[in-house]
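Anyone else keep sequences and structure tokens together like this?

Example one:
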Amino acid sequence: MEEYYREQLAVLLRGVRPADENAMRAAARRWDGIAKPIGGLGELERMIIKLAGIRGSEEVSLARKGVVVFCADNGVVAEGVSQTDSSVTAVVAENFARGIASVNRMATVAGADVLPVDIGVAADLQEPGIRSCKLGRGTANLYREPAMTAEQALAGIHTGIAIAGELKDAGYDILAVGEMGIGNTTTSSAIACIVLGEEPEAVTGRGSGLSDEGLRRKLEVIRGAITLHHPDPSDAIAVLSAVGGFDIAGITGLMLGGAIYHIPVVLDGMITAASALLAQLLCPQVTDYLLASHLGREPLCVPAMQRLGLRPVIRADLALGEGTGAVLLFPMLDQALAVYGENCTFADIRIDAYRRF
């Protein structure tokens, strides 16, 4: 099955093409014709241009928005790397389905649907509305053994790809991605250490609130796991299998699905940044289909964004997860699109256009 998954992934990724340059040039010309200072909306203008490239047309619509939240547990929690135990993952996952978690409140304001996915929660979730794609009841303890098999890692990636395709077919114009999984700041930091070639201290933070002693233990566990497994940093499947999480596998797949099916995916914080690093290893063109919402509090966010070549527009010291930071970008894009689609042009008001120098 592993070989089949690898072959199918290779087939899908061979079809990925860079974003449409002609559509982006047309969108840029349209921005320059709007009666306002050239580039006045900064990175938001560049994001709308990028959306045109993804869509293949200068006509951009974000009428239907979704937030896909991948939920999974991590065996490394047994090493004392988190303030809470894994039971919290199930509680919050069911809250997503009930519509009462933080991301639900924010998504309602932003006009987005929240779509929770159980890709590896240790408990059996009973709440209707959670999509079950369980790869296992949590990963293994990466400090003692590989977090998952290569087959599980590939299955998780294919799950994310399939969800992206289904949501594109259902009429969604843009997806944000989030996660819920106690211990996943440890998995993300371990991935970043390997892929970016950084020491654990450079990319590891306190997660949901560790003490000094807890942070020291977290660093020890990450360093020990990397020494134990030492995966090839250029092999995304090896890295994911050794120290990743089922949520990260699904997120990686959703990002690849964005590139395959031409639907933009908005990153949230550190866990999605680590996932994007893996997606980039598998398909360098994937970053043409990604938007960065905010620069999260965790230290890996800065070097990850630099490697990805993405520029977050929000600086708000966020560390909540769930996709909450990604959802914050939706109203900003809607407002930029209102200017892009509805403002007067210089020709309309019969004044000379600004020029680029």
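And example two:
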Amino acid sequence: MISCDAIETAAHQIMHNAAIDIPEDYRRAVAGMAAREEGLSCFVLQTMLENYDAASADRRPMCADTGLPRYYVKVGNEARIEGGMVALEKALRVATARATRDIPLRPNRVHPLWRTDPNNNVGMFAPEIDWSFEPRADWLELTTVHKGGLFGTDYRMLFPGDGVDGIKRFLLDTLIAFGKRGLACQPAIVGVGLGGAKDACMTLGKQAACLRVVGDRHPDPKIAALELELKDLGNAIGMGPMGFAGRAMVADLHIEVGHTHTGGMPMSVHTFCLSSRRATVRICPGDAPQFQFQYRSDPQWFSDYMRREGIE
């Protein structure tokens, strides 16, 4: 049995981890880009790395804008949760409010019309919680992502005849527009969603950006090759960190696909900002706290079960 106290404790801790400690895979990517850049672009990247170190040393959030904290929850099919799923949701909302006060996180959530602010990042449909399930498992995994909620996302309904060239064209249009207008904090991990219904396409692209680590490749070798091709394309447009001239716009690019309507090929593009704030914990049933919580920075969200195509 996994207790609600354990869930709240773990969710509160990963809020700290995500806001303060930049994942090592992204730090390595930025360091590699800094070694290749020159001038202002190199200076920006080196300053970012220094800021990462300062945030970890001082135990303060890396960025003053701590984004919109949200959760991705993977439930083992054999997991038993005290109070059920409603109690789990309540624990996540309480942990969010506590973390907003304790870290602190900037209270970014406001009513869209009245602009009233509860000062705890909790409200109607907030924080967002995405769910997934895993067979033959008795654990619960929580991932929090702190992603900016204003820009860095676009969508277009392509058609089958557009093919890969159409995908490339939309990606270039999007990245150039983001860079010129300051709508993304690059270098970014870019997520591309292909297929699904419109809302599923947006979800796949966002998860591809936020829940896969730098260097991770799609299990389909053709999609993996396209990921690398699009990454190189994004870094060849002459735009570097924070819009300066350079070659460091895309830290990595991930594609997730879903079966879609026969007449269309929806595509979404999402950029995860230069903080790449994510953290994961697996909660295992048991009485010894040292065996309950397993923290990491790789969400390992996309399992074979999630990407299954057929009927079991």
